[in-house]
Design a protein that fits this description.
Elements: H1 6-18, H2 29-37, E1 44-48, H3 54-57, E2 64-69, H4 72-82, E3 87-90, E4 103-109, H5 112-121, E5 126-128, E6 131-133, H6 135-147, E7 148-159, H7 161-164, H8 171-178, E8 185-190, H9 204-215, H10 218-224, E9 226-227, E10 237-243
Parallel strand pairs: 1-2, 1-4, 2-3, 4-7
Antiparallel strand pairs: 5-6, 7-10, 8-9, 8-10
């Protein structure tokens, strides 16, 4: 039997459970997040906006894992098809139904951009010193911080608007939001290869990782895509680790 990479295994898993939930990128930042989470043991974990529970399902089962999502159908899929050992809760990311300081790990994977988009639609963004503040984004982060225990950690992934040029967060906007909950955050730029064209064949952020994976294990390629710095704050996504003050 040919051994496949963890990356390909997870991709196959998602498509088998619900192909509509596939992330669409063989080198998505969430593969990097999952690799980080695999080392955690016997923790109380909350995945906010976790959908069908893919990320929680990749963590060791000796963790107490809660998958929170507003869409009830996603939670049903998680229980029936993804991992029956995950506790599913239907609730809003803006009003978490938990007491303070309870979680060791809080995951906010690709949800902050949803908050920004809501604020743009509702015209709630505020400009401060040439940087826009998005109240819903800050609300998501405050809720996450409130339920995190003093020694816990928040993991965040979110697309970088420098790549998408749409309604995603810029680095300045992200840092402004993060400063509202902690001074102990570390941001990584994930996949800093340039987007020369919408055509995937000319998009270095797509082409170079795939070429690298032909000569190296794809999982190793994913690990190398996170950088401490990037010219002009450019990357496909952000990966953030936040410790509570």
């Amino acid at each position: 039997m040919i051994k496949i990479s963890e990356q390909q295994r997870i991709k196959n898993k998602i498509k088998k459970i619900d192909s509509k939930c596939w992330w669409g990128d063989d080198f998505d930042v969430r593969f990097y997040l999952i690799n980080k989470l695999k080392s955690f043991q016997k923790k109380i974990v909350l995945d906010i906006g976790g959908g069908i529970g893919i990320i929680c399902s990749e963590m060791d089962k000796n963790n107490f894992r809660i998958n929170l999502d507003i869409k009830f159908n996603n939670l049903v899929t998680c229980r029936k098809k993804t991992d029956s050992g995950i506790c599913n809760i239907c609730a809003s990311m803006l009003n978490l139904p938990f007491r303070k300081n309870v979680f060791d790990v809080v995951i906010c994977s690709n949800i902050l951009e949803v908050g920004k988009n809501q604020d743009i639609i509702n015209k709630k963004q505020i400009e401060e010193n040439s940087v826009y503040v998005y109240p819903t984004v800050e609300k998501i982060l405050r809720e996450s911080s409130n339920v995190l225990n003093p020694k816990g950690i928040i993991f965040i992934t979110t697309p970088n608007n420098a790549y998408y040029r749409s309604t995603k967060l810029t680095n300045k906007e992200l840092q402004k939001a993060l400063s509202s909950i902690s001074k102990k955050s570390k941001t990584y730029f994930f996949n800093t290869y340039k987007r020369l064209s919408k055509n995937k064949k000319l998009n270095l952020a797509n082409v170079i990782p795939k070429l690298s994976a032909k000569f190296s294990n794809p999982d190793a390629v994913v690990k190398k895509l996170a950088k401490d710095q990037s010219k002009n704050d450019f990357s496909v996504s952000f990966f953030v680790e936040v410790k509570k003050e």
